Amino acid sequence: MDKEIQYRALTPEDIDQVRYYSNDRTLTNYMFTGIFPNKPFEIKPEDVVFGVALNTILGIVGLFNINWQARHAELRIFLWKNQNNGIGTEACKFIVDYAFNMLNLNKVWLGTNLSNAPAVKCYQSAGFDYVGTLKDEIFRNGQYYDVWRMECYRQG
Questions:
Q1: Range of 24's domain?
Q2: Structurally, how many domains does the chain consist of?
Q3: Where residue 129 sits, what CATH number does that domain have?
Q4: Catalytic one of 7, 20, 30, 123
Q5: 20 catalytically annotated
């Protein structure tokens, strides 16, 4: 990577961009939920979400649905700029490292739409393994889609 990716707290302007881009069908076609229009973007107090930036915000990466007792969380990433050039993989590695080394979690999991092959490759490159298929999990464009559940565990 020629430039260093910055991970930062979200500003109100960043959140406005998330809301805007999360309703762009060309960008959200492969999202796990498949919902359009998306509900308003909200960060709960227990979520840990970073802006992913190269001088300007490119998207977000975060840990959602954190279960402190079981020590696991769901990874979500949404990039609306600079996709398919390694930034997503680096952002996933960053948030997994943060989960394990800063929050002391044991597992990070995610769901991905199987029709999004670049995302599957990104998650595998970030250390996630396939653990199961959720059959007919998403309904969009008049058809059902399967979803892969993937997980990454703390090493050691």
A1: 6-153
A2: 1
A3: 3.40.630.30
A4: 123
A5: no
